[in-house]
Amino acid sequence: MRSPRFSLRTKLILSFLVIIVIGGLLSLFIGSRIIRSTLTAQAQDKVRHDLSSAWMVFNEKLNDIKNIVRLTAARESMRDLLRAQQLDTLLRYLSRVRAENRLDVLTLSDHQGRVILRTSPPHIAGDFQSRDEIIRRALERETLAAPRIVPREELLKEGEALAAQARLAFIPTPMATPHAEDGETSGMMLEAAAPVLNEDGALLGVLSGGVLVNRNYEIVDRVKGIVFKEGQYKGREVGTATIFQNDLRISTNVKDKEGKRAVGTLLMAEVKKAVLDEGRAWVARAFVVNDWYITAYEPIKDVTGRIIGILYVGTLERPYIDTANRVLSTFTLIAGLSVAFLLVILYFLAFRITRPIQRMVVATQEIAKGDLSHKVQVTSRDEVGSLACSFNQMTNHLREANEKLLDWGRTLEKKVEERTQELRDIQSHFLQSEKLASIGKLAAGIAHEINNPLGAVLVYSHLILEDTPPGQPHHENLKKIVKETTRCKDIVTGLLDFARPKEPQRLPTDIHDLLDRCLAFTEPQALFQNIRVEKVYSSSVPKIVADAGQLQQVFMNIIFNAAEAMDGAGTLTLRTSYDSARDEVAVAITDTGHGIKEENKKWLFEPFFTTKDVGKGTGLGLAISYGIIQKHRGTIEVQSELGRGTTFTIRLPRLMSEP
Hints:
It is a single chain. It is built from 17 helices and 21 strands. The strands form six sheets. The chain has a five-stranded antiparallel sheet, sandwiched between helices. It has three domains: about 40-320, Beta-Lactamase, CATH 3.30.450; about 370-465; about 505-655, Heat Shock Protein 90, CATH 3.30.565.10. A hairpin with a 2-residue loop joins strand 12 and strand 13. The protein has helices at about 10-75, 75-85, 85-100, 135-140, 150-155, 160-165, 220-225, 270-275, 320-370, 385-415, 420-460, 465, 475-500, 510-520, 550-565, 600, 620-630; strands spanning about 105-110, 115-120, 145-150, 170, 185, 185-195, 205-210, 230-235, 235, 240-245, 250, 280-290, 290-300, 305-315, 505-510, 530-535, 545, 570-580, 585-590, 635-640, 645-655. The chain is an alpha+beta fold.
């Protein structure tokens, strides 16, 4: 008989392996999409918030200039000196104001907009500034501040140094729109103007001042200092801020390949089209000088509403990509180990299933050789066991028939010597026919009996645990398969809950009743037998509007974490209080466990972060709890000391506002 190319055991293992691999690859693909989209959404939300902070710094600087100009124009001494035309004294006074407040420009014009004096050398006067919209509106007794583009000829009136500061050569930049010119000579000025009025409100003149943004890094560096605290990542700046004049970087802390500020470089063409040409904000990934960032851009407009530049903040994309890759690598490693473990289990299961069939194959070979006394050992009561019993019965019938034929042959040999040879021929022919018939019947029986169990193997494999008594060798292994499968289900279920968190149901809820229900569930468990529970409930705590089911999930998760941190022995304290000034309820859960390391505190509410042993935690519990508390417009804080214990404090508003 020719041996098969693949054994039945190999086919079973390969079939299960294909299913496991396909399922694992599909899970990794879906998981990678979810992880990357979640991290990208978080990064975009962060840069939106960072851009709002950058606008606060930008507008604060603009208001500072406005207040300096307004207060200086409103001083009585200023009014008196202007009315008396004491220009030398005015020049000294205004020059001191410009120097003390670090203004690049401080200019005084008369009531027609003609320049009386400039505090910057070469002190050119006599020209009219009525074309400046800010000056024109100040002549109409309005105090205002706004950014504007100042041409080179006006900058030269304030001095060669200021014109040189504004002059920037275009530096070729990847993915940027090419320019026909070689540079920019005008500059962006944060300018303010205020009218100078006498006692009866008559206009004496206009005082204007400003700061040139070109190569002035005060705003962008302050934005970086306030918003971004991550420093560097693998030698690259994590957070950056930039002010653009049109699509030219005039003030930035983005570094080029030589480590210098990338002033003179240009904006990515796709972003330029969206922000400068179409006037809309851009919040997405973008190429910034020499690396990819998660960015936020918004147009800067002058007093007339014309777009003259862009304010930008961005955070390096690489940390988010590396985080996603680390998570996926961890998932891949876990999946690989699971596949290897399952292959070992499958090998032994396949061996257990195919071993009786292999014995019947050996038996047929022995029978084919003429050994009719050979029997198959029956080790199970399933379909394979029934087939083995039928096989043994068939062998017994063949052996009995064979013995009868042999006896009949010996009797005929004694009586009729002359027919001995004929009987022997008949006997030999009969034996050969019976052997062929038995083999054919056996093959047909095997094909009939094995076809159904083989077809049901895939369907009923997960029920093997139910059919395997606890005393069998593989019972514990099968329990481990069920446990690990359940754990995979829990991981998938927790992730769906953090990404798509459900909106809480707003119902009146008694915090004390909710905590007592949690304790009623936990105290009977073995983990809590040696834990003393102290309840310090404040009588002033009112009912709150919240989702009791979601809050119970949060409290249960923290209580179980506390019990595990105390290794099942210690004191668990539940304390409630009410802050009437803030109209919020606080719940503090304190344990006497081993505490939390300082470096781990900032990661407590991150998805998939856990300090538990492998297989004892998914790292999603606190992340989901944090999301639930946020949905309730509340906060969750952690205080911990190594060796002393940990306190989780949850603060919830009494009345939950609409999202």
